[in-house]
Amino acid sequence: MKIYDGVIDWGIKRARDSKMIGLGFHSVIDGLVKIDPKKIGNLDLAIPQKFSDLPDSIKCIDDFWKGLIFSFSNGSALQLMIDSKEVYEWIMKTFGTGTLRLGGTSANMAKGLIPFPFEKILVYVYPLKKEIANLFSNSKNLFVVGNNGLDHPINAYDGEGIDAIHWIFEFSQGQSITVKDQIYACPRSNRFIASWNPANSKLEVRDPFRSYVIDHAKDISHFLVSGFHIMQEVYPDGETVEDRIDELLKFIQTVKDKNSEIRFHLEFASIRRDRVRRAVEEKLFSMFDSLGLNEVELSWVARDMGYDEKDILNLDVERISQIISEIMRGDLSRVHFHTLGFYLLVLKGDYDLESQKKALAFASLAAAQRAMDGEINLERFKYVLDIPEKYDYKEWERDGIHFILFPTKVVPSPKITVGLGDTISSLAFVLG
Ligand code: 8BR
Q: What kind and span of H or E run contains 295?
């Protein structure tokens, strides 16, 4: 199809011409655990019937099981933060760390960008211990800020240990778990994520990264911020999410003052806590140039605005366009909505539409190829080019806002889906 013509070569050239790309503030170790129902036995608890019955974080062992069983019996993805050290220790004792893998939105974006000839990908990793440093691949264009300036994580780590872990409990269609003697079958393979991350949950921007970025702002062209989903509403020391977001804004403002050309992108991710999500919507949307989110995330934004979230989940393009137009205020001039089968890109003001479209096409190819093979391999992009799209391309304008409905490539039996959203958003933003 025409929208994909010449896009691979274009993307490579565009990447070559780039400057430094900053990624903050959420890199973490994922621990992959395959659920073995036989080991779980017969659980004795009340299963949440609907999404709103779920706890908004894990405060006790029952909360953990509720999240897991809900996700398992509905075949739906779910992420909950662990708020209790006792539960963290209990999970570690019960399941171990599982198979370690690099995770977190910023590290996922790094994984998706480093295979391309971008000059410098600078990622924030805190705490930068040996275990997480070792999980980064050996790429020449990947950097953290160490005590001696820019370096590969493996040359810059400080100490050993796993201070934060996001457990990914994977389950498969057809497995069953018994609760109160009743058998619950899993309708669809998916995952439940339980995250322990007190070390980074304030999204503090620490030195030496902080001073480096401020001092070298002139070298940076794009900065992608994410990780709000691991924040708390009120921290044990009394600080609030609003306090923390104000601090983050001060950092962004300082960087903008040094270089007003830097484009800032906010990747929403799955922010379950109401007060955190509202703080992000109210304080941050208007301060960023660009926003990336999926249908579930937009449905929560819509609900916060008083709309019916079902319209978004049913992919009602008219309603999706309306909600996105409404959130575009202040600096926010680009919103990239992604779902299975299409992207909706919404632009206000002075954008090069051709570049934006090509960047979407490139991101779609990269996501499909990553889904097919598990990791990005540019040589294999050509194998997804033949996959037919299921939606029709459409472009329209309303009240000075430009809409592009872009049909994407969808691989029939993906090897992985985790991290695809981060790949899509980051590639489309930095290439566009
Ligand atoms: P999130 O992780 O933010 O939900 O993003 C997931 C995105 O991955 C979806 O919006 C969709 O665009 C993409 N995706 C999924 Br899920 N499965 C895919 C597949 N089999 N082929 C291509 N893209 C896929």
A: helix 295-304
Q: Under CATH, which number does the domain 2-28+107-160+203-431 receive?
A: 3.40.1190.20
Give residue limits of the domains in the chain: 2-28+107-160+203-431
Q: Are 399 and 345 in contact (CB under 8 A)?
A: no
Res. 111 pLDDT band, cuts 50 70 90: very high
Please indicate whether residue 414, judged by its CB atom, sits closer than 6 Å to ligand 1: yes
pLDDT digits (tens, 9 = 90+) for 212-249: 999 999 999 999 999 999 999 999 999 999 999 999 99
Distances (CA, A) of 409 to 129, 266, 339, 368: 37, 24, 11, 6
Contact between 11 and 358 (Cβ < 8 Å): yes
Atom of ligand 1 nearest to the CA of 269: 3
Average pLDDT, the chain: 95
- Answer yes or no: is pLDDT of 49 > 90: no
Q: Which atom of ligand 1 is nearest to the CA of 412?
A: 20
Q: From the CA of 312, how far away is ligand 1's center (Å)?
A: 16
Q: Which atom of ligand 1 sits closest to the CA of residue 422?
A: 3
Residue scoring higher pLDDT (203 or 37): 203
DSSP-derived pairing of the beta strands 120-123 and 42-43: unpaired
* Bridge partners, 32 (sequence order): 99, 168
Peptide bond into 51 cis (omega under 30): no
State in Å: Cα 191 to ligand 1 middle. 14
The whole-model pTM stands at: 0.94
Kindly state the helix (H) or strand (E) to which residue 184 belongs, with its residue range.
strand 182-185
